[in-house]
Amino acid sequence: TQLLEQSPQFLSIQEGENLTVYCNSSSVFSSLQWYRQEPGEGPVLLVTVVTGGEVKKLKRLTFQFGDARKDSSLHITAAQPGDTGLYLCAVGNEKLTFGTGTRLTIIP
Amino acid sequence: GAVVSQHPSRVICKSGTSVKIECRSLDFQATTMFWYRQFPKKSLMLMATSNEGSKATYEQGVEKDKFLINHASLTLSTLTVTSAHPEDSSFYICSARSGFKGYEQYFGPGTRLTVT
Fold it and tell me: Tell me, what's the pLDDT at A98?
C-alpha cells in the first residue's frame, strides 16, 4: 500500500481545459509538497503547503491542503502544453516520500 | 542559487562492470545528499541518505554493497553501482540539502543508466 496515492495516474486533455489532480493518504502530515518533473530531468519544487485548508496559487496553478492535512489537490486552469509533465506530491522533512505520480499531457 | 548537477547524464555499461555517478552542489554546501531511483513511468524511490563524512543510511531493500555511496565533501556525493546487471538499468536522481537552508531538497537532472 502506497503512503501517497495520486489520481488520476494518467491524464490527457486539450489545451485550454481545466483539470484537477489529487494526492490522498490516510496519514496526517505537517506539510506537503508538489513537484513537476519533465522527461529526463529531476523534479522541480512547485509549492509547499503547511496549514490545513491552505490554498496557494502559482499563476494558473492552485494548490490546496486538506483541512485534516491528509490530502491535497492541484488545479490547473486553462492548461497549456508547457504544463505537460509528471506531477508528484511528496511528504517528509528529513526524507521525502513521493506519491505515485500523475502524468499529464496537454494536447495543443 | 541552489543548483545541483549530475555526471554523467547518460551511461551505458556492460553487465558485471561498475559505474560511478557523481552528484555536485554547485553553489551551496550540502550537508545531506539523497539518492533516488526512478523506473520508467514510475515515481521516485529513495535509496539512501548520506551526510557528509558519515556512512550512508540505506532504505529497506537497497543493497548497500551493490550501491556504494560516498559523501566525502560538502559539495560531492558519488553513487557506484557495482557488478551491474540489466535490472539495475534505471534513472538515478540525487538531491542535496543545506542545513542552513531548511529542509528543502534541490534535485539534480538525473543519470540514465543502461546495463547491457
Answer: 96
Write down the pLDDT at residue A94: 79
Q: How many CA atoms lie within 13 A of A28 on its CB side?
A: 4
Percent over 90 (pLDDT), chain B: 77
pLDDT given for residue B101 in this prediction? 65
pLDDT band of A1, cuts 50, 70, 90: low
How confident is the model at residue B1, as a pLDDT?
Answer: 67
Which residue type sits at B78?
T
Residues of A at the B interface, defined by Cβ within 8 angstroms:
40-45, 48, 88, 93-101, 103
Determine which of A47-51, A61-65, B50-54 has the lowest per-residue pLDDT on average. Answer: B50-54
B14, burial (CB in 10 Å: exposed 0-12, middle 13-18, buried 19+): exposed
Cα torsion through B4, B10, B16, B17, rounded to 10: -70
Give A50-102 as a DSSP string. -STT-EEEETTEEEEE-TTSSEEEEEESS--GGG-EEEEEEE-SSS-EE---E
Of A37, A26, A18, the closest CA to residue A102 belongs to: A37
pLDDT of residue B112: 97
Question: Could B43 and A98 be called an inter-chain contact, meaning their C-beta atoms sit closer than 8 Å?
Answer: yes
C-alpha cell read off for B29: 554546501
In angstroms, what is the C-alpha Rg of chain A?
Answer: 13
CA-based max dimension of chain A: 39
Say how far residue A67 (Cα) sits from the centre of its chain. Answer: 16
CB pairs under 8 A between A and B: 40
